[in-house]
Amino acid sequence: MARILISTPVLDGCLDPLRGHELVEGEPGSDARARALICDPTQPVDAAAQARMPQLRVIGVAGAGCDAVDQSAAQARAIAVLTAGEGLVESTADVAFGLVIAASRLMHDAEQSLRAGSWAGWRFVEERFGRDVHGATLGLLGFGAIGRAVARRASGFGMDVLHHTRHPTGLPGWVADLDEMLGACDVLSVHVPLSASTRGLIDARRIALLRDSAVLVNTARGAVVDEQALAEALEQGRLFAAGLDVYDGEPAVSPRLLAAPRTVMLPHIGSATLRTRRAMLRGIAGKVAHVLAAAEG
After folding, report:
1. Which of 134, 155, 216, 261 is most buried (CB neighbours < 10 A)?
2. Could you give the CA distance from residue 93 to residue 114 in angstroms, rounded to a whole number?
């Protein structure tokens, strides 16, 4: 039996795979006897927190990304870092494609107009015109499970789907040069993990490569996109619209980004369905249980 520190709220029954182990609640680093830690993907688990858990052998992140965990510190002590991204693929892809539609068709602006009582009825008013999704070219930055799930949804809209990854996928639509893909797409959807190589990857220079009629969607990590450069492009009309579910420094959000025009913004709800969150928690509990059983065996 191992002592496991639970640092995230849980749903009933989702930790059943850990029956027989001692479960305690607290923040990362708060229990020196813990052999395992289960946390959510937004909780920092830095080197100091890991040092306060000298018996720690495994960190289970109940989400797709582990960028909040100090990987170098974990590797130095051979601490396994696990994630549970499998359970959130389809739900996150739903939100990503929903943002593609909502941002392209200016749904947020239209709803605000309706609620404010300024809608004057159906008419040919050019400033209310959105962009068609069907038949448009979708560029996917990253082509993991979520990116591929978005591509499947796009096929139903007759979209031409391109994708860029660091290494060839061998699949139709792969573009070796990111800059080339940016210039060719009507919609860019971001699906890469946050790392040293992807932080700020979509910077001012790359945003400028997008067409002024293009839409940018981000459901990956906020810091992959330079938010100030994005806000400036929206303000100046050099980018048509944006749909965002993630932010650099969340839950704080840049006031400039909040004020940017033609922007649909969600509070990181990509995986926020009951079935998905249960799958994520149960999935990470099962993985942690497997690692502990292997260590004890």
Report:
1. 216
2. 28
